[in-house]
Amino acid sequence: MRAWATLPPWARGEEPMPDTTTLCHGDLHLGQLVRHPAPHGPWLLIDVDDLGTGVPAWDLARPAAWYACGLLTSEEWLRFLAAYRAAGGPAVPADGDPWAALDVPARALTAQTAARAVTKAVAAGRPLDEVERSLVDACARIGSDCAADPSS
C-alpha cells in the first residue's frame, strides 16, 4: 500500500491520464512479440484486444518493472529498449534516460503485480516464491524511498 500511495493520482485512476491521444497496445508483454515468418521475419505485436489511447509508457511498464525488480537482466532490457527505440516506439525518448517516462508505470505495475502475488500465495496457503518475493521487495524499496524523499 505504501508503494501504491507513492503514485500520482492519475496513475491510481483518481484523475484523468495526462495523455489521451496516443494509441497504445494496452497489454504489451514479451510473450506478445512474435516473428513472422519464423524464425527471421520482422517482429510483430499481436493480441490487440486491449488497444486504446493513453500514456504510451504503460505499454513498457511490464518489461521496465521486471528490469527494475531484477527479473530481466540488463542485457535483455537494453536489447529490448534499443529495438523499441529503433522502431520509433512512442513510450520513451529516442535516446537518453527512459526512466522519466517509465518510472510511474513501472512502479504502478510492480505494486499491482506484488499485490496479486501476495493474494494468490495467501489463498493457496503457500509462501511467496522467488519471483513474488522480488516484487514484494521492490514495493518495500519504492515505499521506503518515497517515504524518505516525499518529492519522489
From TrEMBL:
Q: Which residues form the Aminoglycoside phosphotransferase domain?
A: 14-93
User: In the record, which residues are listed under signal peptide?
Assistant: none
Q: Which InterPro entries match?
A: Aminoglycoside_PTrfase, Kinase-like_dom_sf
Domain of life according to the entry: Bacteria
Q: Which Pfam families match?
A: APH
Supply the name of the protein.
Answer: Aminoglycoside phosphotransferase domain-containing protein
Source organism:
Streptomyces griseoflavus Tu4000
